[in-house]
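User: Teach me something about this protein's shape.
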Amino acid sequence: MKTTLKVAIPLFLSLAIVLVGCSEKRSDCTSIPLNLRKVARDSIPYSEFVDSITYVDLETSDNCIIGTISNIRIADGQIVVLDDLSQRVMLFDSIGSYIHDIGSRGLGAGEYIRAAQIDVDKEAENILILDHTGCAVLRYSYDNKFIGKDSVGYADDIVYLGNNTYLTANYNDASDNAGIYLASTSSGEIRKLEGCSNGLPTNKPWLFFYDDGIMSIMTRPYENRLMEWNGNNLTSVVDFIVEPSPTSWQIQEIGKDRMKATEYIDRVVFHNSRRWFFMYFWMDGEVRHIFWDKTGTNPEVVRYLKNDIDGVNGIGLPVCIDNSFVMVVSEENPEANPRLQFLHLK
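Assistant: First, the predicted structure itself:
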């Protein structure tokens, strides 16, 4: 029987800003203050930023019961789903019909120990699975043939840039090692691009965000900077100065006891397209959405996003596909797999 939660929402994503720990100078980018206590308005209607909405109902059968969707990718029109609970990677067609699994857990050749993230190499038509424990990315064809593996080092998240090159994030290692890396599988070189010094681990299952040729990243816990990959390096775009913030002493306490992170703000997810950006936080048991039209308005802090188009509200995934934010809708039927909601942006 299907009784588990359907969307992975990290509980310990305490993400307030501290002006320490980054190798890049903060004066190089725009700083935007965000006071989560000052709510600009109660809600923002979807119609302000959404042009239309479409849905994909993922097939429910004994072969493809989904526990918690932690991420999805699109592979030549097919939908790749990472189920963090069951540790399965499943392939569905464009209308949600189940095709087959990609890879499987195990210790043998072509098997992964822990699937931490997925991506797609569209040119090679490969589905990529980051094996967190094995420090490698496993490659599979769309018809589930094991192609080989790329060694990328210890990583919590990856994004494939093409040309046998990955960006990787390592935020659960020692302070000296934590940071963002550029990994070339053809040369074997792994180069550190961005380092951090506070050394706090994170349960955050995603850090990178890729859409329409733009690769973005929100920096690690307690550093709310939006960065973009310019083809050679990471460039800071916006430094969000978020309040309320834990003090440096409180950050040390969180490092000793991660349960203390729940006493502060938790950034749950962020979306980034060419025009639109939003992220949201848990604070004092409530949600605070940060919504930003990058064409000229200042970011707003609101309590809700309100679907005034068809009334169906979803939970955000860190995915933007073809200028569409992807949400997950949990149906009233607890036995059904989730429904994917595509918010096609203006």
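Now, about its shape. DSSP finds one helix and 26 strands in the chain. The CA atoms of residues 55 and 341 lie 5 Å apart. If you'd like, I can walk through any region in more detail.
User: That's plenty for now, thanks!
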